[in-house]
Amino acid sequence: MAYALLLRLLLAPAGVAHLMEASVAHVLGIDIGGSGIKAASVDTDTGQLLSERQKQETPRPATPDAVMAIVADLVKSCDWSGKAGVTFPGVISGGIIRTAANLDPSWVGTNGVEAFGQATGLNVTLLNDADAAGVAEMKFGAGKGERGTVLMLTLGTGIGSALFIDGVLVPNTEFGHVEIHGKEAEKRASEHAREVEELHWHAWAERLDDYLRHMEALLWPDLIIIGGGVSRKSDKFMPRLTGLHARLVPAALQNEAGIVGAAMTADSG
Ligand code: BGC
């Protein structure tokens, strides 16, 4: 086997180039969310995971030290030494973490690129979690080939948003924090709100409907992609969402979107 590979490398320079290109497209994606932290290596040419997804619960309190220890542990268990893309559930500008609504507030003001770089020993790219999920959906999932205005919303611990105009991301939109009936949208209509308030699907779908209509009135998107873990159960709530002008579709990559988008962004950076 080893002999055959050696022969192929010696005799087929085109094959060598191909092998080298393939390895360049392999990047570690790490997705930090309000409830879980996930990692896997990704082929950024195809969007496929190359290793089994590793997952640990987000520690509480989710302080920088506690979260970074888990990220470092995941990198070790993935046995990784190349590039890495990391998502964070907050606003990221110039590598600095500006908000952390669902993690410990002591994150705010941290240079995330430096901190995650030091914790992992890797060359790290950092971006918002919903932006990462959107980037992956636009390339490999429900938004593939879509032009015009596309709004991706991730319904999880909070509500994340990613806005695309003709395929170009407008970063850090933070539409989960708009106010609906005097309350932040993510406090009423996230998956977390559905779980803690033990809402029936119809009651939760009504809240989501309110929220989507509000977003439509502000942005008039052509397409809305609903992501986050709950998108797996889209049959329970999507038929109850009515009267929107935008096309509404569930995300295709579901729980892997953040990991894939993080890796893609690191690869292009
Ligand atoms: C944060 C966003 C994040 C979303 C989903 C919100 O609370 O402000 O940055 O994308 O939660 O995690």
Describe this structure in words.
Strands 1, 2, 3, 4, 5 and 8 form a 6-stranded mixed beta sheet that branches. A 5-stranded mixed beta sheet has the order 11-10-9-14-15. Strands 6-7 form a two-stranded antiparallel ribbon. It is of the alpha/beta class. Helix 3 (64-77) packs across helix 4 (112-120) and helix 5 crosses helix 10. The protein has a single domain (25-269), classed as ATPase, nucleotide binding domain (Nucleotidyltransferase, domain 5), CATH 3.30.420. Helices cover 38% and strands 25% of the residues. The structure holds beta-D-glucopyranose (BGC). Beta-D-glucopyranose (BGC) binds at residues 34, 89-91, 99, 101-102, 128-130, 154, 156, 158, 160, 174, 176, 186.
Question: What are the SSEs and their pairings?
Answer:
Layout: H1 2-11, H2 13-24, E1 26-32, E2 36-43, E3 48-49, E4 54-57, H3 64-77, E5 83-88, E6 92-93, E7 96-97, H4 112-120, E8 123-128, H5 129-140, E9 149-155, E10 159-165, E11 168-170, E12 179-180, E13 183-184, H6 185-189, H7 191-196, H8 201-219, E14 223-227, H9 234-237, E15 247-250, H10 257-268
Parallel strand pairs: 1-5, 5-8, 9-14, 14-15
Antiparallel strand pairs: 1-2, 2-3, 2-4, 6-7, 9-10, 10-11, 12-13
Helix pairs in contact: 3-4, 5-10
